[in-house]
Amino acid sequence: MKNHRVRKSIDAGITYFILLVVSLIFSFPVLWLLLASFSKTGSIYSFDGFFPAEYSLDSFRRLFTDTVLYNYPQWFKNTLFIAVLSSLIGTILVIMTAYTISRFRFRGRKMLMKITLVLGMFPSFMAMTAVYILMTHFNLINQHWGLVLIYSAAAPVGYMVQKGFFDTIPGSIDEAARIDGASSFTIFRKIIFPLSAPIIVYTGLTLFAWPWSDFILPRLLLKDRDLYTVAVGLMSLGDDEFARFSAGAMFIAIPIIILYFCLARFLISGLSSGAVKE
Amino acid sequence: MKKRIIIPLAVIMAHFLVITGIIAGGFTRDESVSLDKDAQASDRFTGILERDITLRVLENDTALRQGYFEELLNAFNAEYEQYGIRAVDANMDQYLDLENDGPFGFGPDVLYQANDRIMRYALGRHVQPLPIEQLDCYPHIEQKAWDAYKMTVSGQDYYLAAPVNIQGPFLFYRKSLLPSPDIIESWNALYKFSQERREEGKFGYMKSLIDVYYSIGFLFSYGGYMYGDNNTNMEDIGLARNGAERGAGVLRQLASVMDERCIDFTITQISYSQFANGNFFATMTTPDVYTLFVDELMAVGFTREEAVAEIGIADVPKLPKSGDLSEENPELMPSRMMGGVNGYAISSYTKYPNAALAFVNFATSYDMVMLRNEILGIIPARKDAAENLGELAQTINNHLVEGNIVVMPSLMGQVWTPAETFFTDLANDPFRRDGDRKFTTLESKRLALERLSGQIYDAIHTLK
Amino acid sequence: MSLLKNCNAYVIASMLLMGAGQILYGQWVKGLLYLALQVTGIIFFINYGAAMIAGFITLGTVEGNAWYGIDGDNSVTMLITGLFAIIILIMYFVLYVSNIKSAYESQKLAASGKKPQGIIEDIKELADKKLYKTVLLVPIIGVCIFSVLPIVFMILVAFTNFGGDTVPPALVDWTGFESFKRVLTLGTFAPTFIKIFGWNILWAVLATAFGYLGGLGLALLFNKKCVKGKVFWRAFPILAYAVPGFISLIGFRFMFAAGGPINQMIVNNGGDVILFLGLNSTWLSRGIGLLVNTWLTVPTSMLLATGILANMNKDTFEAAEIDGAGPVRQFVSLTLPFVLFATTPVLITNFMLNFNNFGIFFFLRGGFISEGYFLASDTDLLINWLFRLSIDNNYYSIGAVISLIIFLITSIVSLDVYLRSDAYKKEDIYR
User: Nearest 5°: phi and psi at B170?
Assistant: First the structure.
C-alpha cells in the first residue's frame, strides 16, 4: 500500500513537471510579445536579448486614444460584433447539421458526406474573386453582416468533427425517448443538446476565434477604415508601428480567453460526468 | 396506355420550352454601344464644375498622421465651399485596389499614389488621362517627372497623374559622429570609415542588403537596367548587362563591413534604435521615415530640436567607376538609385471629373506643395518650390532629369522574389567559410545575375 | 415512370402550374407556396436570370473603356452571375420535381380514400421524421452559394484565358483545354512539382501527426486524476491559441532572425550567428516550421480531444484497471480507438488544412527562389507555389489548372482514406 502511494506521488511529481514545461512552452512566446507591447520604445526590435530595457503603458494608451488614423477601439467593436454573431449562428448551423447527419438515414446522405469532405480541400484563396463579386451583387460590401453571412454559411462544411462526437453518443438514449413519444426535435432539444456541451463549446470557441485572426476575407469586403476588423487593421499598420501592433494583438487574446473561462466547465460535462446513465 | 404517358410528357415539355424560351431571351440585347471616332479621353473635363457634391480623396498614411491632409482638405474646402464642393478623406487603405474597387463604385475620386501603382491602374484604364496643360503646375514641373505618368495608346500620349513629389533614397547619418564631411561624399570613404568603426566594435553604414528597392540601384549604377527600351521592352531583362556585376561587387564589399544581420530584414527593423544609440553611423532610406529617427533619438534623451539637428540627410554617396570600394583616390560617378514620382490621379469611375481636376490643381499648387514639404519633408517635383528649398531638393530634381533616379516600372511583381533571393545569396557571401564563397570573381557575379534575369524572364513569359 | 402512367388531371395541372394540383386537392397553403415560388422564379429569369446565363456563355461582347465612360462587359462578373443563375435554375427544377411528386402523393392518398396531408401534418413531419430536410436546407443553400459556387468558378476559370493581360476590362474567352496543355507541356514544371509535392506530403503527415498526438497527449495529461486546477492549466495552450496565428508567426520569425534574440544569445556566448531561416537552411527551416506549426495547432486539437474524452465511458476504464491493464495498454486498446473513431474526419480535415497551409512559411520565411526549383523555394508547399504563379504573376487560369490538379490528387487520396475508415464504415459502432 505504501509502495502504491509512493508511486502515485512520483507520478504526480512527473505530471506536474511536464505541466510546467508545457505551460512555459505555450506562454513564453506570448509573454514575449506581451512584453514588447509594454516596452518603452514599443518594439521587440530594440530589445537587448529577450527582454525590453524599459517598460511603459504608452503603446496601450496610444492604441486607445490616438484613433485618427488607426481606430482600434472601433475595430475591436466591429470584430466583437462579427465574432459573436457568426459564432452563434454558425454553431447552431453546425450542430444541427452534424446532429441530423449523425442520426438520420436518408437518400443522398453518403453522397453529401463525401462532397463536403472534398469541398474543404480546394485552395480557398483562388475562390476569393468569386466571393467578392457575389458580395458586390448582394450589396454586402462594407457591411459587417456580409462577413457574418459568409462565416456562418461556411461553418457547416466543417460539421464532421461534431458528427464524430454525436456518433459516440449511444443511440439507445434517443430510442428510449422515441418510444415515449418524443419527436426528433424534442429529442435533440431535451436530450442530445445538454449532452453535447463539450462539442458546442469547442465549436463556439473556434468559430468565435476565427474572425479575430482572419484578415483575408474582411480585407476583401470591408473598404472603409472604420469598418475594419482588428486583424485587417493591424495588418494595415505601418512598419514603424510595431508597438501598436503587438499591443493590439495582445488585446485580441482577451475576449477569447474570457470566453474560454466562461465555457471551461462545460468542456468536460459529457456523458462521463454521469448526467445520463444507460 | 401510351396515350396516358403522352399527355403528362407533353405538359412537362411545354413547361421546359417556356423556361428555355425565357432563357433564350437573354441572348437578344442591344449591342450598339460603339465609340465615337472623334471622342477624346479628355472630353469628360468640360470645365464646368459639378456642384453640391462630396469628393472622396485618398492620401497616404503619413500625410494623415502628420496632419498635412487635414490642412489640405480645410484649405480646399474653404475655397470651394462657394461651389458646394467638399473634399473628404476616402477613409480607405493607402494601398488601394482600384482594379477591383473602382468598377464596383467603391474607389475614391482622387488618389495620391506612387507612379508604379498609377501606371498599373492605367493599363486597365482605371485612372483618367488628365488635360495637364490646364493645370497651373504644368509649366513648373520637368518633363521627366510628367514622363513617369506617360502612356502611349495607338500613337497618342496620355498623362495619368500630376506629380507632387520625387521619391528617392537618402543617406541618413549622425552628424555628431561624422569626423569629416568627405566621408559621406563617396562610398569608398564611407566604406573605409565603416571598417574603422568596426574595429571599435561599432558599425558605420548599415542596411539590409536584401532590400531589393535599395540594392538594385547598385546594379543600375554600373549600367544594368530593369527592362529594355526605357523599361518598356519586357523581353529584355538587363540586370546582367553592361558590367552590372561591378555593382554586385560593391554590395558584397558593403556586406563585409556589416554583419549577418544584413542577410535578412533585421537591420531595417532595428536601424532606428541602433541609429539613436550610436551603434550605427548611417543608413539609407526614404524621407517618409524621418520622424522615426526623431522619435528614437528622443527616447534616448535628445530634445526634439537636438534630434532634428543631429540627423543628417544627404544625397546618396558617389560610386567608384572601377567598382572597388577599397581603391584609394578612385574616379567617382553618381549613384543611380531606384525611385519614383508620387502624385495625384483621378479615378475613371468618378462622377465628378471637373471637381476632381480642381482638387488636383489645388493640391499641386505652390503653396500646398511647400506646406507638404514643411510637414512631411518631401522633395517637391515643382521646380519653383525646389529652388526655394535649397541644394538637396534641387539635386534630387536634377537626379531625376539626369536619370540618376530610375523611375520604378509598373510591372515589378515578378522581380521581387528572384531579386531578393539573389541579394540574400550575395550578402551572405562574406560570411561563408573560405572554400564556400560563391561570388569572389566578377565572372561568378555576372553568371548569377544572368541566372536572376533568366528567372525573371521565366516568371514573366513562360506562362504567358 | 409509374407516376407518368398513372397520374391524373390534378397532377398534370401541377406540371403546368406549380401548386395547381395541390390547390385542387385542397392543400391551399402548400399549393400557393409552390405557385408563389414558381412565379418568383420566372420573374427572376425574365428580368435577370436569362441575361446572366447568356453572359455565362458569351463571357461578354462589349469591351469596356472607362476613359470614355463605356461600362462594357465584365467577363469575370458574368461568369459568376451566370453560375449563380444556373444554381437558381437547378433549384427551380428540384422544386418542380418535388411539386409533381407531392401532387402524386396526394393523388395516391385520395385514391385510397384518405384525405391529402394538410399543412399542419406537413409541418409536424418536417419537425420529426423529416427533420433533416428542414435543418439541412439553410446550410445547403449557404454552402452552395459561398463554397460550391466559388469552387466551380475556379474550375471553370481553368478553361478560360483569364489572367496576364486578359483581365477586365479586357474580355475573357473560353479556351477549352489550352491552359492544361500549357501546364502539362512545360518542361521546367514537372521536376519542381514533384519535389514540392513530395515535401508537401511529408509536411502534411508530420504536421498532422505532431498536432494531433500533441493535442491528445495534452488532453490526457490534463485529464489525469492527480491534476488539480484543470481549468487553469488548460488556459496556457488557450493563451497561445487566443493570439492570432499570423501575429505569432511574425513574432517567431523575428525570434529566429539573424539579429533576433536567439542569435543574440548565441553571439553573447561566443557562438556564430545561425541563419535559421536563411536561403540555404532547407531542413532547419522545415524543422522550425514544423515545431512552430505544432505550437499553433496543438491547442485546438487539445480542446477537441478533451471534449471527445468527456464522452468516454469511465466504467470501461475501471473494469480495465481491475483486470490489471496498465496505463499504456489502456491507452492503446481503449482510448486511442475511441478517440480515433470520433476524430478520423478531423484527422483528414487537419491533414488537408496542413496540406494547404499557406500562412506558415509565407509569414515565417518569406519568399525565396531555391536552386533547382521553378519560381519556388524549398519550403514552399504547393499552395505557396500556386500563389506565386497565379496571384503574384497574375496567371489565374494557369493557377486554376494547378489547383484543379492538386484538388484532384488530394480529394481522391482523402476520400479513399475516409471511405476505408471506421468512422465511415462503422458509423454505428458506439451507438
Answer: -130, 160
Using the Cβ of C179 and the Cβ atoms of chain A, whether some distance falls under 8 Å is answered with no
Q: Which of C66, A127, A144 is nearest to B102 (CA)?
A: C66
What does the pLDDT read at residue A30?
85
What angle do the packed helices B442-461 and B416-428 form, to 10 degrees? Answer: 160
Which backbone phi and psi does C326 adopt, to 5 degrees? -75, 170
Q: Taking Cα atoms as reference points, which of B227, C297, C222 lies closest to residue A19?
A: C222
Fold classified for A66-273: MetI-like fold (1.10.3720)
Average pLDDT, chain B: 87
The bridge status of strand B332-333 relative to strand B379-380 is: unpaired
Q: Indicate which of A24, A139, A168, A242 best probes the interface with C, i.e. most C CBs within 10 Å of its own CB.
A: A168
Give the tens place of pLDDT for each residue, A79-89: 999 999 999 99
Distance CA B296, CA A42 (A): 10
Q: What is the predicted ipTM? A: 0.82
A62/B contact by beta carbon, under 8 A: no
Residue whose C-alpha cell reads 428555355 in the numeric block? B20
Q: Give the model confidence (pLDDT) of B241-292 as tens digits.
A: 888 899 998 999 999 888 888 888 878 878 888 888 888 999 999 887 787 8
The beta-strand segments (E) located in B109-197 are 110-114, 150-153, 156-159, 161-167, 170-174
Average pLDDT, chain A: 82
Q: What is the per-residue pLDDT for C250?
A: 84
For A143-181, the pLDDT digits (tens) are 999 999 999 988 888 888 888 888 877 777 777 877 877
Q: Say whether domain C182-425 belongs to CATH 1.10.3720.10.
A: yes
What DSSP line would sit under A26-76, residue for residue?
HHHHHHHHHHHHHBSS--GGG-BTTB-SSB-SHHHHHHHH--SS--HHHHH
Residue that has been written with the C-alpha cell 540618376 in this structure = B404
Most confident residue range from A31-35, A132-136, A177-181, B1-5: A132-136
User: Over the Cα atoms of chain B, what is R_g?
Assistant: 27
Residue ranges covered by each domain of chain A: 1-56, 66-273
Q: Write down the domain spans for chain C.
A: 2-176, 182-425
Q: B65 CB near a chain A CB, below 8 Å?
A: yes
Q: Is the pLDDT of residue A272 over 50?
A: no
The residue in chain B having the minimum alpha-carbon distance to the alpha carbon of residue A71 is B91
| pLDDT at residue number A250 | 83
Q: What is d(CA B183, CA C431) in angstroms, rounded to the nearest whole number?
A: 82
How far away is chain A from the Cα of B464, in angstroms, using its nearest Cα? 19
Task: For residue A46, list chain B residues with Cβ-Cβ distance below 8 A.
Answer: 270, 272-274, 296
Q: Which of B23, B160, B280, B455 to mutate to test the interface with C (most CBs of C within 10 A)?
A: B23
CB contacts of C121 in chain A (<8 Å) are: none
Predicted local confidence at residue B359, as pLDDT: 94
Q: What mean pLDDT comes out for the span C151-155? A: 89
